[in-house]
Every structure is written in structure tokens, then in C-alpha cells.
Specification:
The protein is of the alpha/beta class. The chain is about 35% helix and about 15% strand. The strands form two sheets. It has an eight-stranded mixed sheet, with helices on both faces. α1 runs antiparallel to α3. The N and C termini lie far apart (about 75 Å).
């Protein structure tokens, strides 16, 4: 008698399907990058968060909605409304499907067409602001629109990634993955936007490695560490406002990186090591490369927030890069140096060991 497999239809298929989807986040790989990207025999470890379905912000998106539901702030089936430059939008689209919530995302004209199409395909409703705010730029304009939409949508919930402590609390899992992957970590390199992953990962790692140094990576034109606000080409790091989740006291040094320098790092990594990502990844890689060269013997870990696919028409598009003057600019061997973050305005890769909270942040 031949046998035949029988597949029973589970009673709660949606619950099981959604749970399985959420389990696809985390346990991302770690790779060691050395020569030829890092000359001289040194190197650093890169945590490849682009292996998550949408990137690093899948982690806080799921955690913020899970916690909001547990507190009763987010009712079953209620709408989630948030501002995003891209990566958190992907995470919220995922979390909305997992937990059964419609998602409305407010973005701006800088959102890549691919991202807009992807988010729409995931069932997200997109709202695009058309003018930057006089103070706070596009970021503040998006947040103002979120507030307006919340007023029109009783019961809707905004995760508020910039100020919600659940954003920071989403990252102990990533820290413990690193602890399982490496016996020692001396320096952690993180891009800084909302401040969530730099604060969340470093606080856990320092319980195991009290001497851990934290290097933050910002973009020129960002106000997070006291520089003046300027129009910013790079998305995913930097800010025109002052997120409360940024733990300024946690940083041992901060680096500002310009777009052309990040493009060089992204493309060089791709060509030499078949590893790359977007703006944040390029900026972080440039700083980690320098730290590996100047701090031999230390175990350096860099967080790569996403992969390269989203940036095919920006970072990896010659026409786009030529139009913005981003090709052919090889970064200097050493960063410029500031004694304090507001000593002068920076326009290229610059390092400052004297991190402090800007007065405008009210911290």
C-alpha cells in the first residue's frame, strides 16, 4: 500500500503564519573585513543586519508594537501612523502584518521610488509631505503631518521612534547575538539617527565589557551632536531634530561623514569583499576601517544596518552620483579633528572625542 502524506489545516493559521514571519528577524551573520579594504593586516567584524527581511529596524518595529499592544496603547486592529525615511517603514510594514494593524507612513520626496513601491505592495498607505518645516526640515514636516493624521484617526497609535524607550529596548537581542558570536568586544561602531541601536546595544555589552568604547557615526549637516542643520543627502542616519533616545553620554567619540565618502566605502566594500549596504553602512565602514588600522589588537564590531539593494538608484547609480558630485572622492587617510562638536562646521570626515549633548536638545 502506498503511503500518502496528510497535511492538516491548522485552526489558527493566521496566528501561526504571523508568528513564523516574526521569527525571521534576528540571528544575523557576522563577517570579518580585513585586507584589502583594511590595509596593514588589521580588520573589523561587521554585523550584517541587512539579512533581516527589511533591515535593522525590523527589531524595534516589532518590539514597539508588541509593547504597545501589551500596555493597551495599541488596540487590536488599530491603525499605526509613523514618520520614516525608509528602513523603519519596512519594519512597521512587517509588524503591521504580524500583528494585524493597518500602517500609514509619512515620508518626503527623498524616499526612493523602489521603497515607495515596496511599501505600497506590503499594504502600507503612504503620505508624502511636500514642503520642509522652517525649523527641523523634512523630519519635522513629517512629524507635524503625523500629528495631524493622529488627530483625524481616533484610536490610532504612533510609535514615535525618536523618543520611545521601547526603541532602545528592542536591541538587547542583537547585543546577545554578538556576545554569542565573539568572546571579546572592545569597540562598537554605530550610525546614529534615532539613537536606538547605539544605546540599546552598548548598554548591554558594557555589562560584560566595562571598557567598551562606543564610536558614533553621523552625517554632515546633522544636528544630533551640535552641528548646524543643513540639507542632507544621506538617509537613515543623522537628524534635523534632537531625538531623546540618543544617549550622548554613552559615546566615547563621534565621526561625521560626507556622502561622497560613504559612497566610496560602499562601492569599495562591494568590489573587494562582496559585502555592502547603503549610506549608513558606508559611513560606519569608513570609521571602522580607520579604527581597525589605528587600534591594532582591539576587537572592533561595526553594525551594518541594511544591505545594498535599496540604493541601486543612488549609491550605486553612476548618473545619480555624478549629478551630486559623489564619484572620485577618495577619503583622506585621517579624519579632521574637533575638540568639541560645535567648534566649527564640518564638511568632510571629521572626528570629535569630546561628545556632549547640544544645548538645543534640552538634555
Amino acid at each position: 500500500m502506498s503511503s500518502q502524506a496528510v497535511f492538516a489545516r491548522p485552526e489558527k493559521a493566521p496566528f501561526r503564519r504571523f508568528s513564523t514571519l516574526s521569527l525571521s528577524v534576528g540571528n544575523t551573520p557576522l563577517t570579518f573585513l580585513s585586507d584589502p579594504f583594511v590595509p596593514g593586516g588589521g580588520g573589523f567584524w561587521a554585523k550584517l543586519e541587512g539579512f533581516n527581511p527589511g533591515g535593522i529596524k525590523d527589531r524595534p518595529a516589532l518590539h514597539m508594537l508588541r509593547q504597545a499592544r501589551a500596555r493597551g496603547d495599541l488596540k487590536p486592529g488599530a491603525t499605526v501612523i509613523e514618520s520614516t525615511s525608509g528602513t523603519l517603514g519596512l519594519g512597521l510594514a512587517l509588524a503591521g502584518i504580524v500583528f494585524g494593524h493597518p500602517v500609514v507612513l509619512v515620508t518626503d520626496p527623498g524616499m526612493e521610488p523602489l521603497m515607495c513601491r515596496l511599501l505600497a505592495s506590503y499594504g502600507v498607505r503612504l503620505e508624502t509631505v511636500t514642503e520642509p518645516s522652517p525649523v527641523g526640515g523634512w523630519q519635522q514636516a513629517r512629524r507635524d503631518r503625523v500629528r495631524h493624521l493622529l488627530g483625524e484617526s481616533p484610536g490610532a497609535y504612533c510609535p514615535d521612534q525618536y523618543n520611545n524607550p521601547d526603541n532602545v529596548d528592542a536591541y538587547p537581542g542583537l547585543a546577545h547575538e554578538l556576545l554569542n558570536q565573539l568572546p571579546q568586544i572592545d569597540t562598537l561602531v554605530c550610525s546614529v539617527g534615532t539613537g536606538g541601536h547605539s544605546a540599546g546595544i552598548s548598554s548591554v555589552l558594557r555589562r560584560h565589557f566595562p571598557g567598551l568604547r562606543l564610536a558614533g557615526v553621523d552625517t554632515v549637516g546633522s544636528t544630533i551632536f551640535g552641528q548646524p542643520a543643513r540639507p542632507r543627502l544621506m538617509r537613515g542616519l543623522g537628524s534635523s531634530i534632537h531625538p531623546r533616545n540618543v544617549d550622548h553620554d554613552a559615546f566615547d567619540e563621534i565621526h561625521w561623514v560626507a556622502p561622497a565618502e560613504a559612497v566610496w566605502a560602499c562601492r569599495t566594500l562591494a568590489a573587494l569583499h562582496y559585502v555592502s549596504g547603503g549610506w549608513s553602512t558606508g559611513a560606519v565602514a569608513l570609521v571602522a576601517r580607520w579604527l581597525a588600522r589605528t587600534q591594532p589588537g582591539r576587537t572592533i564590531v561595526a553594525i551594518f544596518p541594511d544591505g545594498p539593494w535599496r540604493y541601486w538608484d543612488s549609491v550605486y547609480d553612476d548618473e545619480y552620483c555624478l549629478a551630486h558630485g559623489l564619484l572620485g572622492a577618495v577619503p583622506a587617510d585621517e579624519p579632521d579633528l574637533l575638540r568639541v562638536p560645535d567648534e566649527r562646521e564640518v564638511h568632510r570626515w571629521t572626528r570629535c572625542p569630546g561628545v556632549r549633548a547640544p544645548l538645543a536638545a534640552g538634555l
